[in-house]
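Example for tutorial group B:
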């Protein structure tokens, strides 16, 4: 068994790998059943989240809402702009974290928000 330390996106992972010879590998292939790959998690989540999921979209920083792009009942896709938050003279697009339907809009154009305030609920 060999141990390795791997860094991915600045996170360090420790993994162990067992070495096997060619005969052991062939024997393993013959005895193991065929495994079908699972559907990627993103696709499973997308299918399940078309209804309201209860996901809260919160303000990442204090600022003023300069644009609201969604309404209650509107279907949104992951990455779609929900609103624009102006903070420190910069415009920050707040996007949907997942597919879903807007169940609440707690903001309006010109509103002041604090970090952590709920802007929209999916």
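The residue assignment follows.
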């Amino acid at each position: 068994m060999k141990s390795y330390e791997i860094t991915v996106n600045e996170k360090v992972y420790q993994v162990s790998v067992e070495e096997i010879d060619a005969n052991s590998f062939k024997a393993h292939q013959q005895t193991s059943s065929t495994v079908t790959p699972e559907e990627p998690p993103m696709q499973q989540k997308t299918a399940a989240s078309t209804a309201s999921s209860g996901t809260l979209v919160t303000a990442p920083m204090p600022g003023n809402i300069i644009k609201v792009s969604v309404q209650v009942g509107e279907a949104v896709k992951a990455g779609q702009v929900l609103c624009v938050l102006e903070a420190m003279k910069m415009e920050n697009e707040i996007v949907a974290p997942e597919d879903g339907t807007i169940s609440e809009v707690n903001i309006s154009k010109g509103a002041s928000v604090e970090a952590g305030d709920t802007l929209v609920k999916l």
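The longest helix spans residues 22-31. Compare this with the pattern of hydrophobic and polar residues in the output above.
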